[in-house]
Amino acid sequence: xxxxxxxxxxxxxxxxxxxxxxxxxxxxxxxxxxxxxxxxxxxxxxxxxxxxxxxxxxxxxxxxxxxxxxxxxxxxxxxxxxxxxxxxxxxxxxxxxxxxxxxxxxxxxxxxxxxxxxxxxxxxxxxxxxxxxxxxxxxxxxxxxxxxxxxxxxxxxxxxxxxxxxxxxxxxxxxxxxxxxxxxxxxxxxxxxxxxxxxxxxxxxxxxxxxxxxxxxxxxxxxxxxxxxxxxxxxxxxxxxxxxxxxxxxxxxxxxxxxxxxxxxxxxxxxxxxxxxxxxxxxxxxxxxxxxxxxxxxxxxxxxxxxxxxxxxxxxxxxxxxxxxxxxxxxxxxxxxxxxxxxxxxxxxxxxxxxxxxxxxxxxxxxxxxxxxxxxxxxxxxxxxxxxxxxxxxxxxx
Length: 398
What we know:
Blueprint: H1 19-25, H2 29-49, E1 56-57, E2 62-63, H3 74-91, H4 95-110, E3 118-120, E4 126-128, H5 133-138, H6 145-163, E5 169-174, H7 177-180, H8 197-208, E6 214-216, H9 217-223, H10 240-254, E7 269-272, H11 289-293, E8 296-299, E9 305-309, E10 321-326, E11 333-338, H12 346-349, E12 355-360, H13 366-372, E13 376-382, H14 385-388
Parallel strand pairs: 5-6, 5-13, 11-12, 11-13
Antiparallel strand pairs: 1-2, 3-4, 7-8, 9-10, 10-12
Helix pairs in contact: 9-10
């Protein structure tokens, strides 16, 4: 008996076994497919259209990868795909919002940090754990005698290099947030010593080079701690009030060489709610109501200096090189080598110098010093960098 094989439909109506019917029988199947395609395409499309132009991840406390430069060299061509992948991973659409949302959720619901670079302290305070911060607090590895010898030799050689050119050398150490507000650090983080590497270095220099002066800005900041809030709960650095206190300690030291220099006072500034009082970013990308309600400080009568480089100056001083000029060309010239903590010092110090250059680096630029011949060189380190930075005496010219 012949087997009957049904002929295919030719009337345009889908057969019961066709994919169209099968798809229609699954509730919301088409929506799922569309959603899947959107999820797959959106990150790349958003990147191509430049919909997320963020350069910094606040929750991760880091700068995002930059677009990889193209080169026709074979080595660079081979490395470009990996560099692009890093860029894509940092900039696909909604990445920052997803990470910030996760950090905010963990903090709000669980009271915990979404980043291993942030320590959750007491009373809603956050502290920076990376870049030597947690290591300097715990003091698992204090300075060895050999390391202190290297620091001493480096500092003495720097001072001698500048002294031969009749340039004073001012070394300052800025305090980390936990140095000023240790009562807000979590009790679970037990310290193995009660001092910091800054204390160890200062004590050693006093012992071996008693005429070498180090300005420990912690002394001045601690003295004003009860008068105003000097660091915000979610910020890494001091705010403009803490920076002003630190600046005054430096300015007082500068009067040894520049007697006519008159340090600015708190009374020389007005509160302006339009001016920020703290960092550009906060740890975990959180909003601090106390910081938001604190007005920034503005010089009464306006600043006497102006930024001449770069063309579009960053208001927080977060650039590798920054130069200022003052209307009074008879004032001395400053060169400062610093880290991020000096960002809040720049507006104050620049009021006393006809020309000031600020380099964001740990070592002196000896060629720049030779070329520009400043009247004073200031070098600033935040306390935690005494953990991560290793000086090299041999780099200092004779």
